[in-house]
Amino acid sequence: MQKKTILTHATVITANDQNEVIQDGAVGYEGSVITYVGPTPEDVSGYDEVIDLKGDYLLPGLINTHGHVGMSLLRGYADDLPLQQWLEDKMWPLEAQFTSEHVKWGTYISLIEMIRTGTTTFVDMYDHMDEVAKAVDASGMRARLCRGMIGLCSEEERQAKLHDAVAFAHDWHNQANGRITVMMAPHAPYTCPPSFISQIVEKAEELDLPIHIHMSETEWEVGQNVQDYGVRPVAHLENLGVFNRPTLLAHAVHLTDEEIDVLANYHVKVSHNVVSNLKLASGVAPVPKMLAKGIRVSLGTDSSASNNNLNLFEELKLAAILHKGVNHDPVAVPAEEALRMATRYGADGVFQPEALGSIETGKQADLIVLNSRQAHFHPAHNPVSHVVYAANGRDVTDTIVAGTFVMRKGELLTVDEERVIFEANRMFQMLKR
Ligand SMILES: CSC[C@H]1O[C@@H](n2cnc3c(O)ncnc32)[C@H](O)[C@@H]1O
Ligand SMILES: [Zn+2]
């Protein structure tokens, strides 16, 4: 018998098709699955556990669709640089020294940040992915994980990376009670020779997995692609058959209108990494145009080394306001749409729209609670507006994944925060800089 829990007297922001907000609402779940969404019932005697949320906001957990959690170990190590210099001179030399221990503690630091700021599902692309998967499993989080493959190496090393990615998929896809799923991830068109990308696509087909790749992040990348292959990145990846698989693109900053049409026709998903794109001076993605064409644009943080935190509430607010400013259009990315980017479209981005992204019966009980008894949530007449424009990650008091609390009343239940902070500092000190 599965445990039956009901959260009562909440302001339920469902993020469903009707953008329904239920005052004095309740959400019941059995095991990991939501079984009731509606007004708080008079009779809750059928539930094993009844938690009175006293008017707090109850939302679907946020979904972070692009990042590199191990890189939190490099937070603040290299700021104020453009992407290529940041990668080549700063990140890659330190990452070359990373062992699985570095990735383990970098991952745990990230998991703490995400749990504390209301992310319940994240996408990750990195190396030493067994450590990431083990930490996700132990923490109770949900993740779509990929062994990132950079092809700027010998053919032998490329094949070893591909072998590693396939083994990782065999070991971890649909594990941790389905909380861990996998994708195949060529790092980017400028770091992977075409033949390597084709091989990865072939493996993704064999394993029936989606593709996750960085694309068109900088102007330099687009120019380099034209110089090397005679076409821009979208046509290049289309020619290599990438978009014949379900695909999640990270960034997609530099796109023409025609390229947006191509991505829309293939139902390609996009992760918008607004803070990282601004900090690395990469540019501003044409999000309103993509959304207008029906592209599912979700939110990603990228890593703490280019962000410099994993608090998705910052992406949520910035996505809602930045595009208004740059397009001189106050209705660009309205609050409801921004919230969908952090929830519903995130579920599309991880290819699990039927299970995640909104509070609806039959979906997973991935839920977060925000303390509504704070000045910045009042007057209390427009909860969605408050969540998008006034809230911040520190408002999150409870985080529930698959029906299990991973944070309750601000206390982490699955991760030893003090130990993680100690180990992360120790691992960083061991790196040669
Ligand atoms: C081995 S896959 C992960 C690889 O990606 C690098 N990375 C981190 N952030 C970005 C970004 O914004 N664009 C491109 N590549 C990025 C990271 O340093 C890892 O080497
Ligand atoms: Zn990235």
Mean pLDDT: 98
Largest sheet: 9 strands, mixed
Oligomerization state: single chain
Can you identify the CATH class of the largest domain?
Alpha Beta
Which regions are unreliable across 5 or more consecutive residues at pLDDT < 50? none
**CATH fold call of the largest domain:** TIM Barrel
What radius of gyration results from the CA coordinates? Answer: 21 Å
CATH superfamily of the largest domain: Metal-dependent hydrolases
Any idea what the CATH architecture of the largest domain is? Alpha-Beta Barrel
Total domain modules:
2
Shape annotation = globular
Give the percentage of residues in beta strands: 15-25%
State the helix count: 15
What is the tally of beta strands? 17
Tell me about this structure.
- The protein has 433 residues and is of the alpha/beta class.
- It has 2 domains: 4-61 and 355-412, Urease, subunit C, domain 1, CATH 2.30.40; 62-349, Metal-dependent hydrolases (TIM Barrel, Alpha-Beta Barrel), CATH 3.20.20.
- Helices cover 38% and strands 22% of the residues.
- It contains 15 helices and 17 strands.
- It has helices at residues 83-95, 100-116, 129-139, 155-172, 194-207, 219-229, 233-239, 257-265, 274-279, 287-292, 312-327, 335-342, 344-349, 383-390, 417-429; strands at 4-13, 21-30, 33-39, 49-52, 57-60, 62-64, 119-126, 142-149, 180-186, 211-215, 247-251, 269-272, 297-299, 367-370, 396-401, 404-408, 411-412.
- Strands 1, 2, 3, 4, 5, 14, 15, 16 and 17 form a 9-stranded mixed beta sheet that branches.
- A hairpin with a 2-residue loop joins strand 15 and strand 16.
- Helix 2 (100-116) packs parallel to helix 3, helix 4 packs parallel to helix 5 (194-207) and helix 11 crosses helix 14.
- The protein is globular.
- The protein starts with a strand and ends with a helix.
- The mean pLDDT is 98.
- The protein binds the ligand CSC[C@H]1O[C@@H](n2cnc3c(O)ncnc32)[C@H](O)[C@@H]1O and zinc ion.
